[in-house]
Design brief:
By secondary structure, the chain is of the alpha/beta class. The chain contains 13 helices and twelve strands. Strand 2 and strand 3 form a beta hairpin. The longest helix has 29 residues.
Length: about 350
């Protein structure tokens, strides 16, 4: 466990029950119940029932951005029984959600009408701010904003200012995971936001993720976003290293399987390495679990964050350049493992 971070694991079955113990103080999420004597059991039981009611209340959730991640999150929210109102700039990407029970809106403002929670999963910070400005006429003061776009440190600042201006309760809540865990509702939610109000956002976290890692109570401080950038720096570095292993193997006429035999079962072996190289070796780069173009954007955000804090990130800089080169070669919509092709002149990898 990391000091200062609260881990909130969700057991199988999604419903979360908190056990009452013989204690003079019982804590239920953001509320703290202090009672004494024989009455504490009745009070605690009542509090537990209230907590269960809150946690199982069905919400109206607006999902703005229904790409790889947003669409999967919207489906899992609908599956959990919440009312889902979805919007995407390319309506065709959102339309299939109607079959899952979601209302597909024609505009962001229409999508957020009556929403208890607004979930944004868009390309970057500027795109998110633009869409939220379009949504402004339909926003309800006091609504919760679950901001899950990887927006970067500077991007978060502008989004928090918008939230304050419109009376929204802001939760910095990027997620870890790609297409498969998103579709399975097994994402890891990195979250920062006020304890008061979590009874609304927690059911949303539970519907889309297997675990929530709380990093603080001030969403505007961007602690969850900073943790996401750190995690992504490792993911992107490993992805590019996997591609270069294959590229060098090809150049030196080495069977990649010999490399896997050498590291098999040892500390250098890892499932992620094998998963990403398998996509390249077996030509399974589409549909993307996480697209090359999006990886390029995230890599640049990581580099910018390092520069802002006086850290030179050579690997992240090289990663950004490789992803951008692969995008220019026409691989932008493929899985980020397609950065493999950036090791060759266009067409030479065939």
């Amino acid at each position: 466990m990391v000091p200062g971070i609260e881990y909130d694991a969700q057991p199988a079955g999604r419903e979360r029950h908190r056990q009452v113990t013989n204690s003079p103080s019982v804590s239920w999420g953001p509320r703290h119940l202090r009672v004494s004597g024989a009455s504490w059991v009745r009070a605690a039981t009542s509090a537990r029932e209230q907590e269960f009611d809150v946690m199982t209340d069905k919400l109206t959730v607006s999902v703005l951005g229904t790409g790889i991640m947003g669409a999967a999150m919207a489906r899992n929210l609908a599956k959990a029984g919440h009312t889902v109102r979805a919007w995407n700039r390319t309506r065709a990407k959102a339309q299939p959600l109607a079959a899952d029970g979601a209302f597909v809106a024609d505009s962001p403002a229409e999508a957020v009408e009556g929403a208890d929670v607004v979930l944004t999963m868009l390309y970057d910070g500027p795109a998110t701010l633009e869409v939220m400005r379009e949504a402004a006429p339909g926003l309800r003061s006091g609504a919760v904003w679950m901001q899950s776009t990887t927006a970067g440190i500077d991007g978060i600042t502008a989004l928090v200012a918008f939230a304050d201006e419109h009376g929204l309760v802001f939760y910095d809540a990027p997620v870890l995971g790609t297409r498969q865990p998103a579709e399975a509702g097994q994402l890891t939610v990195l979250a920062a936001g006020p304890a008061e109000g979590r009874e609304k956002v927690t059911p949303v976290f539970d519907a889309v993720g297997a675990r929530t890692v709380w990093t603080g109570e001030d969403g505007g401080a961007g602690s969850a976003t900073r943790l996401k950038l750190v995690a992504n720096s490792w993911v992107l570095a490993v992805t590019n290293a996997a591609g270069e292993v294959l590229a060098l193997s090809k150049a030196l006429d080495v069977d990649p399987q010999r490399f896997f035999e050498v590291i098999d079962g040892g500390p250098l072996d890892m499932g992620y390495l094998r998963a990403k190289t398998d996509l390249v070796l077996n030509d399974r780069l589409s549909p993307a679990a996480f697209a090359v173009s999006t990886a390029a954007k995230d890599a640049r955000l990581i580099v910018e964050a390092g520069e802002r804090h006086g850290v030179q990130l050579d690997v992240a800089t090289a990663s950004a350049e490789r992803f951008e080169r692969a995008t220019a070669q026409g691989h932008g919509d493929e899985d980020m493992a397609a950065a493999y092709f950036a090791s060759f002149e266009e067409g030479a990898a065939e």
